[in-house]
Design goal:
Layout: H1 13-25, H2 31-65, H3 74-87
Length: 88
């Protein structure tokens, strides 16, 4: 066996691109598998975006509730809070 055989040096950019394509395309030969993986990845991306936005907005609303007694911001926040409660 020739285990110590060196790999050829690739100097041409097209050869590098072809070698990388062969290297990374081995997992995605099955088109159905590719579509299923991308579909699941999209579902998790969408769910993560919704959950993250919900937590972010909840933190902002909680932070703004601290300013309920501030003279200039208080009435504006009360108006916003009433609008949110009317939509429920």
């Amino acid at each position: 066996m020739e285990e110590n055989k060196k790999q050829p040096i690739i100097k041409n950019p097209k050869e590098v691109a072809k070698a990388l394509e062969v290297l990374f395309a081995s997992d995605y030969i099955d088109v159905r598998k590719l579509h299923i993986e991308n579909f699941i990845r999209g579902i998790f991306f969408g769910a993560g975006t919704v959950i993250g936005a919900t937590v972010f907005i909840a933190i902002i609303v909680w932070f703004l509730s601290i300013f309920d007694t501030v003279p200039l911001i208080g009435p504006l926040f009360d108006n916003t809070k009433e609008t949110i409660q009317q939509t429920r």
